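Operator note (shift B, R.M.): manual run for HXXEE domain-containing protein requested after the automated queue skipped it. Running by hand, logging everything below so the morning shift can see what happened. Input copied straight from the record, untouched. If output looks odd, do not overwrite the archive copy; leave it for review.
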Amino acid sequence: MQEMNSPWLLVALFIFHDGEEVLFLPTWVQKNAVLFDELESKLPFLKRSLHLLRHHNQKQFNISVLLELAVLSFFSAAAVLFPQITWIRIAFISVLVLFTLHLVFHVVQSLFIHKVVPGTITSILVFLPSLILWKNQIQSAGITWGLSMFYGLIVAILFIPLFPVILKIGHWAASPTKKLE
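Run finished. Output pasted below as returned.
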């Protein structure tokens, strides 16, 4: 089961999962404008991210996903090249934890809004492989589930605020005028 311990598995799972989002999210967002209006009024702390998602075209969204893929690939490559360096392993495991929780979040979103959100189907399909990779990585690193969750929380605190920035970069890079708003 060596392949279920390779950091590159995270990249493969991300590509499969985000492929669903790339294919369906921009159109789904357009078709659910009323839902986004309701969410923006009920969840004002998400208004900025929801606004960015609503005003992304396909190309802009694809660039944002490509940036996320680059970050995941960087952490996976570092984990492959330097497996003996503890902080690199911990960083990779933390990103893996964040990805796995992101999968759960898709299912929770769908339950919350009573609609299947793009990304939910592949979240269900890649959850178990992601969990197995997580288990294998923490066993290999000699840390506990709880400690890996703690590290994942730290990474979440650092990276979640970057999500709107990634969306803005995608918006900027694909816009003909290249003006950040």
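Quick read of the result: The chain has a mean pLDDT of 88. The CA atoms of residues 38 and 160 lie 22 Å apart.
Leaving this for review. - R.M.
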